[in-house]
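User: Reviewer 2 asked us to show a designed sequence for the structure in our supplementary figure. I'm pasting the structure tokens here. Could you produce the per-position amino acids so we can include them in the response letter?
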């Protein structure tokens, strides 16, 4: 996968069209050339900003942990900053951090290991998500269930997840529990069943990085479970909530269309992504991951996060008149994620073919 990942696979052909309405070439032509330029210095500055903010949270922890209100503030702030750091590592995984693969992989490991995320396995599964976005059987990062598949989920677990726990637990279940790509820690598991020895070795290296970092955190917390939960565990759950909230709302809305083999194309799938405004300065602070996600999915290897706003403004001029751009103002995202996931979870979507399972009403 590495050579294919670092290149532009044929499945993403620039001449591909969305139902004959627009091509990837036409969309790319609307974007200023400078949006495709990667600036390592700028990328490092953004990373240092986030790492500096996290260091500040850690420095203030001894003071804030004296009160429950201060502890809650620390959890919320540190968890959000951890999410921002993940987004920087996300750019590294796509190769949009810099032009240099070694640099991308090094800083990707720095950012993701701090979050106990095995970088190379995540990069592999995330690539599959981008390559097959909104494909009924191949986009395992965001599974699309039929009503029959949903009914097979144990009822108690289903209600616990859809009535509050899901946004907090779906990320660790996906990353470590193996739902639905396979565990990201296991080089001989489902995620790597068709991969090369080289890829499996990468998995082992990333897993080793996490395995080394985790006891370091435990040591920092004096091997105290309570201290670990307060210092690292609770912010990590907040980070998990942010990750699921943002990614779920990026890829699910009332008009989401799911494709099967005969209907799917890279461009059709990418255009099912939705841009959302969270407001309150959040969109800018976490690197345009919410309000520039359509442009990101179209050119995920080529546009750094600091150019997404300008690129989004450009592609809107092409996509909006054709009815191909999805956008929602979601300033109520804190409540919306719980209500929308409860009502839609991973089913209830429109299928693009009558050969696919019937739409769940």
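Assistant: Here is a per-position design you can include in the supplement:
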């Amino acid at each position: 996968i590495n050579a294919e990942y670092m290149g532009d696979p044929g499945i993403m052909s620039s001449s591909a069209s969305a139902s004959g309405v627009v091509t990837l070439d036409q969309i790319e032509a609307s974007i200023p050339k400078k949006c495709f330029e990667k600036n390592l210095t700028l990328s490092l500055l953004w990373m240092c900003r986030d790492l500096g903010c996290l260091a500040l949270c850690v420095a203030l922890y001894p003071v804030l942990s004296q009160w429950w209100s201060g502890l809650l503030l620390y959890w919320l702030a540190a968890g959000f900053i951890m999410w921002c750091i993940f987004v920087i590592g996300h750019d590294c995984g796509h190769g949009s951090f810099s032009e240099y693969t070694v640099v991308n992989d090094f800083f990707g490991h720095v950012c993701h290991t701090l979050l106990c995320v095995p970088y190379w396995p995540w990069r592999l599964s995330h690539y599959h998500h981008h390559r097959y976005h909104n494909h009924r059987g191949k986009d395992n990062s965001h599974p699309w269930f039929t009503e029959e598949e949903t009914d097979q989920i144990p009822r108690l677990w289903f209600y616990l997840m859809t009535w509050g726990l899901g946004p907090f637990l779906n990320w660790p279940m996906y990353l470590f529990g193996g739902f639905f790509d396979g565990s990201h820690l296991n080089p001989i598991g489902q995620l790597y069943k068709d991969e090369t020895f080289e890829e499996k070795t990468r998995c082992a290296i990333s897993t080793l990085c996490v395995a080394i970092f985790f006891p370091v955190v435990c040591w920092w917390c004096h091997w105290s479970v309570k201290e670990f939960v307060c210092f690292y565990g609770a912010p990590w759950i907040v980070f998990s909530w942010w990750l699921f909230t943002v990614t779920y709302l990026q890829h699910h809305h009332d008009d989401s269309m799911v494709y099967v083999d005969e209907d799917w194309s890279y461009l059709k799938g990418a255009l099912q992504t939705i841009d959302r405004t969270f407001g309150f300065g959040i969109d800018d602070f976490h690197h345009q991951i919410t309000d520039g996600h359509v442009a990101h999915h179209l050119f995920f290897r080529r546009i750094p996060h600091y150019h997404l706003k300008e690129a989004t403004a450009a592609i809107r001029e092409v996509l909006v008149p054709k009815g191909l751009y999805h956008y929602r103002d979601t300033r109520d995202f804190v409540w919306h994620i719980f209500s929308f996931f409860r009502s839609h979870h991973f089913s209830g979507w429109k299928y693009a073919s009558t050969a696919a399972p019937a739409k769940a009403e």
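For the response letter, you might also mention the following. Strands lie at 257-258, 274-277, 326-329, 350-351. The first strand starts at residue 257 and ends at 258.
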